[in-house]
Amino acid sequence: MTISYNWLKEYIDIPESPEEIGHILTSTGLEVEHIELHETIKGGLQGLVIGEVLTCSKHPNADKLSLTTVDVGNNKILPIVCGAPNVAAGQKVVVAVPGTTLYTAKGESFTIKSTKIRGEQSEGMICAEDEIGLGKSHEGIIVLHTQLPNGTPASQLYDIQSDYTIEIGLTPNRADAASHLGVARDIKASKKRTLKLPSVDNFKVQNKNLAITVQVENTDACPRYSAVTISGVKVSESPNWLKNRLLAIGQTPINNIVDITNFVLHELGQPLHAFDADQIIGSKVIVKTLPEGTKFTTLDKKERTLKASDLMICNAQEGMCIGGVFGGIKSGITEDSKNVFLESAYFSPEYIRKTSMHHQLKTDASFRFERGTDPNNTVYALKRAALLIQEIAGGEISSDIVDVYPSKIENRIFSVKYKNVDRLIGKNIPREEMLSILERLDIQILEKNETDFKVSVPPYRVDVMQEADIAEEVLRIYGFNNIELSEIASTDYLASFPSKDINKYKRTIGELLISNGFYEIWTNSLTNFSYQQKHNLSFKGIPVEILNKLSEEQGILRQTLLFTGLEVCAYNINRRQKDLKLFEFGKIYYKEADKYQEEERLVLFMTGNVQTENWRNPSKGVDYYELAQHVQHILIKSGCVDLKHEKIDDQLLDYGVRLLRGSKEFGKLGKIKQALLKDFGIKQDLFYAELNTSLLFQNANPKLVIQEVAKFPEVRRDLSLILDKQISFEEIHNLIMGAEKRLIRNVIAFDVYEGENIPKGKKAYALGFTLLDETKTLTDEEIDKTMERLMAALEQKLGALIRK
Length: 804
Prior knowledge:
Elements: E1 2-4, H1 5-8, H2 18-27, E2 32-39, E3 48-58, E4 66-71, E5 77-82, E6 92-96, E7 101-103, E8 109-111, E9 115-117, E10 120-122, E11 125-126, E12 143-144, H3 154-157, E13 162-168, H4 180-191, E14 213-216, E15 224-231, H5 240-248, H6 256-268, E16 272-276, E17 284-289, E18 295-297, E19 303-305, E20 311-314, E21 319-322, E22 326-327, E23 340-346, H7 349-359, H8 364-369, H9 378-393, E24 396-397, E25 402-404, E26 412-417, H10 418-425, H11 431-440, E27 444-448, E28 452-457, H12 467-478, H13 502-515, E29 519-520, E30 526-527, H14 530-534, E31 544-545, E32 556-557, H15 562-573, E33 580-592, E34 595-607, H16 624-638, E35 644-647, E36 653-661, E37 664-672, H17 674-679, E38 686-692, H18 693-699, E39 715-724, H19 729-739, E40 744-753, E41 762-771, H20 780-798, E42 801-803
Parallel strand pairs: 14-17, 29-33
Antiparallel strand pairs: 1-13, 2-13, 3-4, 3-6, 4-5, 6-11, 6-12, 7-8, 9-10, 15-23, 15-24, 15-25, 16-23, 17-20, 18-19, 20-21, 21-22, 26-28, 27-28, 30-32, 31-32, 33-34, 34-38, 35-36, 36-37, 37-38, 39-41, 39-42, 40-41
Helix pairs in contact: 4-11, 5-6, 6-9, 10-12, 11-12, 13-16, 19-20
């Protein structure tokens, strides 16, 4: 946002230099990024004076040149060779004396020197418009009609002013400072000065000959709409002072009516819109939305398709303007306009944001409306603009002010505790100083006592919503630099945050995976719906389709992290990176019961070899059990070791299991179906796990168990048995640990075999048992009895055949 230093001084006394003002604004939170000298005409017409041509004769050595003598004041008469066809004696002209640097309309520059032209002395130059940056014409020299004496600086004639532009990096929350008045308010609060607001006391209705009815149908989108008419105006070029104000902040002057609306916008922060009143069909303005798909042509001559949520300013038959965003081509002010309907409104920021984003229209008006303007400022801004129009364009105010404001937007009122403000700031600011700062910021103190006070915050301060915001307001005006640093670094907050932090949890799990050779990936939340359509796949809820999608490849929000992960796997495999261990934390999205939902997920991908092949490590392909081991590490780290493993028949997996606790599914893992891999050009087996990060985090309960190292030795016993093929190791493990809790410390399967010499439908397990008694050394008799009990349980409960 650009602010003019000279313009700012109209609203508040500023003895400080632009650089000093930059420091003051930055200290209050309005970070000044750049300060630059601005001149209405580059160079400020320095060295250019008004002169009078005394004599003019033909150059003896050139047909197209003239010899002139020019009076440039101070009893100086300069000989000047001039090539302009329109030069003549008796003319008042603009003269560049030797040593003057000229800046042309094309951005070039050159310095005037005393020289000889075709043998005749020339001590300066009589200037054309384009040679000094006043215009583009080069048909002849500028001939002036002025009574100013010779030698008068040309900058005085053309009202050339120098100014400084202050570039502020305005943060989105400071919509109140998006104007010269808004910036002046911060200086007022910081330096304890008084604002000088433009007076509108002279506003007076001259007649009521141009009454236009206003009807607001959508008061949610337009809580307040104010308007007035001015008749008999003359649309023309703006005066220099107004053009200079706009040029200083990078605005291009258009005509006096439009320039005034832009001037008031940057002065007060209230966008205005001027309509040609004669183009308002039916003398009626209706604020409403139009049907979805309605076509509307804007000022830039582009036809746009409206959404049903786009707020429109309409006449009795059609739309005239996209409310708060952009005008229409039919109703704008032109050089033929005579009567003006002037609008000043407060539009809902939510509506304006949606419309501006949908149509990709970013204007000065939408910039302010979508952040929040002052609903209580519409009539004042309207009067200010109407008086300026009368002053500059003539005309008469021809209607009463229409002000549709059915439900007033009240100030926000809440209580603030002194101790919380002090705690957040880190210093006990004197109570009276604190309250004085707030009152200088237009935050009214309604009540106060020894412990707290009640504030009333005006609606234009959209960022002051709660106690912490009051602390910020006090601190930025009191001064960050006035808060002494303590010897101990610390921070504080008002909210009581839970001790568990999902980001810390994700970082812990990520570090675990990285330490085991995994690489983290980040993929796009948008994916291709055809991935799941082709295989008739369905996921939780309804897919969330992107309405303004850039392509079908990014048409929906993902319901699983699988597809974008497979794209990454395919990309790497196609580049001969075939051994992959990848993981990603991300969100899935869906719609359920007319509500949009999102859930955290962790996915793992493994394919290729377990580790890089070398002379000591022959190649060994990744399998399901490698993946399961890493998943188990995650569950152990999360303290979720009691999850049940259940086989699943999944639409994505050839085989796999899901992880359950009661009816809650914590995740699944298995081998991805070949038909799905084929779509991505992947020709090698790929194993995949998907875990519900939110559930794991919510149920995470890692316990640090500390115990002495056992004083007595562990004992190892092995057992070979044949079981039905469908019996899983988990069932065996649960049975053994249930049958003998006291002595059995661990059970492992060190071999599993199916095939020759094993009956069909059966498989052989080789199990290893670790036994320990922490109170004494186990005897052979105790060990044998324990193993006999376990073998009996296996035979009776699982139908095992023990191989003795």
